[in-house]
C-alpha cells in the first residue's frame, strides 16, 4: 500500500513539474539547468546552508592544520567546489586545488575567492569525482567534499579516487545530506520527491545511504556523525558530517 501511495504522489508531483519534464524531453532543461539555474540555485543555497551549519563546519575543519605534509604546507583538493562555500573555513596559506564537473560556477566562485584571499588557489579542474586523473596519486594532504556525493555517478568510485590522491595519513572531510531513518515520514517524502528533485536539481539524489559507502571504503579511521540541518520545507534535513583518515 505504501509503495502505491508513493507512486501516486510521485505522479502528482511530476504533473506539477510537467513544464520541466517537457523541457527535459526536448533537450532544453539540462543545458539550462547546468549553465544558469543550478549555479544560481547553489550559490543561494550555499549562503543559507553555511548559516545553518557554520558551527559544525568550524568544528569539522578545526584540525585541518594538523594534517600539513612534511614540507609544512597544507595541500587541499576540493571535489565539487561549486561557488566556493567552504573557502572561509580553510586555514591561512592553505594551497587549494578546486575541481567540479560543472564549469559554470565562475561568477559565484570569483565572488567567493575575492572574499577569501587568505588561501592560495593553485588550479581549477573540470573533473568528475570518479575521475581525478589530473591529480597525481598521493599528492594532497586533505580532500574536502560537501553536498557533492548526492550527485556523483558512483559514490564508491569517488571514494576510491579520494584514497588514491591522498598521501598516507591524509584526511577526507565530508558533509552530505543523506536518506532519512527507515520507516520515517522524512524518508517517505524523500522517496516521493526523489525523481522530480533529481531532474530539477541536476542529478541530486535524496535517498543515498552514503555512510554505508564510507564504512566500506577501508579508511584507517572514520569519525562520522548523523545530524539534522534545519532547512524547513525541504527533504534534505538529514546529514552526515565527519572525516576519514587514509
SS field, number of helical segments: 7
The total of beta strands comes to 7
Q: What is the straight-line distance between the termini?
A: 45 Å
Helix/sheet category:
alpha/beta
Q: Going across the major beta sheet, what is the strand order?
A: 3-2-1-4-5-7-6
**Net shape:** globular
Structure write-up:
Keywords: Membrane, Transmembrane, Transmembrane helix. This is Methyltransferase like 7A. InterPro entries: Methyltransf_11, SAM-dependent_MTases_sf, Thiol_S-MT. There is one protein chain. The chain has 246 residues and is an alpha/beta fold. Helices cover 40% and strands 22% of the residues. The chain has seven helices and seven strands; from the N terminus they run αααββαββαβααββ. The protein has a seven-stranded mixed β-sheet. The radius of gyration is 18 Å and the shape is globular. The chain starts with a helix and ends with a strand.
Keywords:
40% helix, S-adenosylmethionine-dependent methyltransferase activity, 246 residues, 22% strand, alpha/beta, Methyltransferase like 7A
Write the layout of secondary structure elements.
Layout: H1 2-16, H2 18-25, H3 29-60, E1 75-79, E2 95-100, H4 106-115, E3 120-126, E4 140-146, H5 155-165, E5 166-177, H6 185-200, H7 210-215, E6 221-228, E7 238-245
Parallel strand pairs: 1-2, 1-4, 2-3, 4-5
Antiparallel strand pairs: 5-7, 6-7
Summarize the structure.
With 246 residues, this protein is of the alpha/beta class. It has seven helices and seven strands; from the N terminus they run H-H-H-E-E-H-E-E-H-E-H-H-E-E. Strands 3-2-1-4-5-7-6 form a seven-stranded mixed sheet.
Amino acid at each position: 500500500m505504501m509503495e502505491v501511495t508513493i507512486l501516486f504522489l510521485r505522479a502528482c508531483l511530476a504533473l506539477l513539474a510537467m513544464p520541466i519534464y517537457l523541457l527535459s524531453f526536448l533537450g532544453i532543461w539540462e543545458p539550462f539547468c547546468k549553465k544558469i539555474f543550478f549555479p544560481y540555485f547553489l550559490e543561494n543555497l550555499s549562503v543559507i546552508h553555511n548559516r545553518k551549519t557554520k558551527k559544525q563546519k568550524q568544528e569539522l575543519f578545526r584540525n585541518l592544520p594538523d594534517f600539513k605534509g612534511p614540507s609544512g604546507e597544507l595541500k587541499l583538493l576540493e571535489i565539487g567546489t561549486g561557488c566556493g562555500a567552504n573557502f572561509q573555513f580553510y586555514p591561512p596559506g592553505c594551497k587549494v586545488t578546486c575541481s567540479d564537473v560543472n564549469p559554470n560556477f565562475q561568477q559565484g566562485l570569483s565572488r567567493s575567492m575575492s572574499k577569501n584571499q587568505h588561501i592560495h588557489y593553485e588550479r581549477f579542474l573540470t573533473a568528475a569525482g570518479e575521475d581525478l586523473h589530473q591529480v597525481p596519486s598521493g599528492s594532497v594532504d586533505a580532500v574536502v567534499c560537501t553536498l557533492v556525493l548526492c550527485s556523483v555517478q558512483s559514490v564508491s568510485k569517488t571514494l576510491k579516487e579520494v584514497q588514491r590522491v591522498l598521501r598516507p595519513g591524509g584526511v577526507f572531510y565530508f558533509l552530505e545530506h543523506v536518506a532519512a531513518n527507515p520507516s520515517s515520514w522524512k524518508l517517505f517524502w524523500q522517496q516521493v520527491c526523489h525523481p522530480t528533485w533529481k531532474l530539477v536539481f541536476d542529478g541530486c539524489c535524496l535517498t543515498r545511504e552514503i555512510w554505508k559507502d564510507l564504512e566500506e571504503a577501508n579508511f584507517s579511521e572514520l569519525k562520522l556523525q548523523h545530524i539534522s540541518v534545519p532547512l524547513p520545507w525541504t527533504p534534505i534535513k538529514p546529514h552526515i558530517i565527519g572525516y576519514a583518515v587514509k
